[in-house]
């Protein structure tokens, strides 16, 4: 496989997000504070079943575990 | 007598016709030697269809310089420095976090990236401290995903450090 991060189940979208995050953190203080707000993401979702709201989960954490699962599946 | 006058007129007419042929624009002048560059981030437009002479980009397939009339192509960018040689002869450099460069058939180049800053906006200490932090994680016993992310960070930071020297 061409990219090591692909083998770990990471998506290209995640790769870009990580690369952008580290670029933002490398900026000088004034620009960094402004830029880092762009990296924040707080989305939550819940699955509704039989008319009842399920557990409220963070989208970021759900994505991370899905990527770990995908890597585990590929290894099998 | 009238036939003789007619030939005189024809003789005089010829040189002007010849001049016209010389003034006609040829293919070489009609084509511009500039490339229209659009460099866009999600939150900012740095270049908007601006005529530039050359753009050097760090593509996954290797570093390349793009001039006018480049063959159309799509290149994935590595985190790295792009250099833009402007019409005035000066050049500008930006560090991009990664994205895509699309060369369109009519001498147009679109570059999309998530983050892009000039080199003077980066802090030396921030890069150094992040390198030591990321190498700790990359060599540690975290999850496969954490190690992979730390390795991505290292790739970006090392490219940035090399560019800043």
Describe this structure in words.
The complex is a heterodimer of chains A (76) and B (165). Chain A is of the alpha+beta class. Chain A has one domain (4-75). Chain A contains four helices and two strands. Chain A has a two-stranded antiparallel sheet. In chain A, strand 1 and strand 2 form a beta hairpin. The two termini of chain A are 16 Å apart. With 165 residues, chain B is an alpha+beta fold. Chain B has two domains: 32-119, ATP Synthase, domain 1 (Sandwich), CATH 2.60.15; 122-164. Helix content of chain B is 38%, strand content 36%. In chain B, strands 1, 2, 3, 4, 5, 6, 7, 8 and 9 form a nine-stranded mixed sheet that branches. The longest helix of chain B has 22 residues, at 2-23. The relative contact order of chain B is 0.13. At the A-B interface, helix 1, helix 2, helix 3 and helix 4 of A face helix 3 and helix 4 of B. Chain A: This is Mitochondrial ATP synthase epsilon chain domain-containing protein. Chain A: InterPro entries: ATP_synth_F1_esu_mt, ATP_synth_F1_esu_sf_mt. Chain A: Pfam families: ATP-synt_Eps.
């Amino acid at each position: 496989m061409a990219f090591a991060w692909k083998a770990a189940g990471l998506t290209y979208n995640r790769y870009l997000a990580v690369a952008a995050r580290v670029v933002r953190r490398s900026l000088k203080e004034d620009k960094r504070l402004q830029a880092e707000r762009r990296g924040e993401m707080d989305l939550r979702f819940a699955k509704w079943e039989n008319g009842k709201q399920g557990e409220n989960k963070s989208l970021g954490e759900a994505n991370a575990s899905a990527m770990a699962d995908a890597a585990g599946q590929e290894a099998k | 007598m009238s036939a003789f006058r007619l030939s005189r007129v024809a003789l005089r007419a010829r040189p002007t016709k010849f001049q016209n042929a010389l003034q006609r624009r040829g293919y070489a002048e009609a084509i511009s030697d500039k490339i229209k560059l659009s460099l866009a981030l999600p939150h900012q437009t740095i270049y908007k269809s601006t005529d530039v002479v050359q753009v050097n980009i760090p593509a996954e397939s290797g570093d390349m310089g793009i001039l006018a009339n480049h063959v159309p192509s799509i290149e994935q960018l590595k985190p790295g420095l792009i250099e833009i040689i402007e019409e005035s002869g000066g050049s500008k450099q930006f560090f991009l976090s990664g994205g895509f460069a699309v060369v369109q058939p009519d001498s147009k180049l679109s570059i999309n990236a998530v983050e892009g800053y000039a080199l003077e906006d980066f802090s030396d200490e921030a890069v150094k401290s992040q390198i030591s932090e990321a190498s700790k994680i990359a060599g540690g016993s975290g999850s496969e995903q954490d190690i992979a992310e730390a390795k991505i960070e290292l790739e970006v930071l090392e490219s940035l450090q090399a560019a800043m020297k």
